[in-house]
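To assess whether ligand presence alters the predicted conformation, the chain was also submitted together with coenzyme A. Input:
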Amino acid sequence: MALLVVFGGLPGTGKTSVSRAVADALGATFLRLDSVEVAMQRGGIDLRDAPVGYAVAHAIAVDQLRAGRPVVVDAVNPVAIARAGWQQTAASCDAELRLVRVVLPDEAEHRRRVETRVADIEAHVLPTWPEVTAARHDPWVEPHLELDNSSSLAVAVATVLAWLESTSEPTSAPASPTERVARGMARLSVADAGEVFTLQLAAWVREGRECGTLEIPPLQESIDDVRAGLLDAGKRAWGLRENGRLIAMVRLSMLDATTAFVGRLGVVPDLIGTGLGAATLRFVEAQVPPGTTRIELVTGLGSVSNHVFYEHMGYELVSRDSDAGTVRFAKPLT
Ligand SMILES: CC(C)(COP(=O)(O)OP(=O)(O)OC[C@H]1O[C@@H](n2cnc3c(N)ncnc32)[C@H](O)[C@@H]1OP(=O)(O)O)[C@@H](O)C(=O)NCCC(=O)NCCS
């Protein structure tokens, strides 16, 4: 079944950036209503009386969906009838419709974005703040994702992709990192070695930079070392995959009967700082065998952001190894 993702929301909320990135991630046809309408206006068509831009967009979407290609639509879709039109288009192509409403709850920030943005389509006249606030907007009563776009583009895109992937009924609340981890974290095997190697190299450059050296184990391991780690019966590894992409991972082993060791906790660089690291660490803490009384881990001596992160997560620095350039953190389990 082809997928039709329709974005809506007031001008200036950042729909275009998010929907374009979602289309790229899905390999979908990106259908931007502004592009259609500006082209028509430049061809001499007056759209004030007839919203034919939507009709053209629907016709293009139908061709794409019937060919089995996913489509992502970027349009204001302010009135109920506009959204009902997409429902009809989806139904006529036997496609699944998912609606995303982009919002910016902070009105001052929204106004700032409306007043400072620059048109990226030639001859596109952008609406002013009074025009944005005066236009008619029907309440969204249809099932949809309400996307608060106050944070970064990466967070917005990850939220939409996670929601699209969920098979549950559409909800107005985006999934939290904890929910995403609970839903998607799965054991990694040697078949995942290539992806683990790639994530490892991408994620640990950050620690390498902070420590001023690339000579740290995660950056020095070869693909064969990674394979060996995944084959090691004493180490269990988990990964979080969203839309086919490995975005977070972690590994757990036992140092002795009561002490667990967490290693290779990493998040892809574009999603660092979005809560996935904390959720992944909490996940692995819950995987320790019964009888475990302490968790330990090691990080770079100069990796200050990791120190801050682990302290934030309840770990305490217990020793330093200046020769190895590492520090050991530990947390008692109660
Ligand atoms: C370490 C790592 C896994 C942390 O994951 P993350 O997704 O960036 O962290 P989160 O977004 O989950 O942050 C969790 C909390 O720690 C805080 N935190 C994280 N890094 C911080 C920093 N440098 N300074 C202050 N607070 C920080 C966050 O504010 C957040 O707090 P909150 O839950 O109260 O909002 C991630 O940065 C990473 O993959 N780094 C590269 C690989 C690496 O070095 N791994 C560790 C090897 S030991």
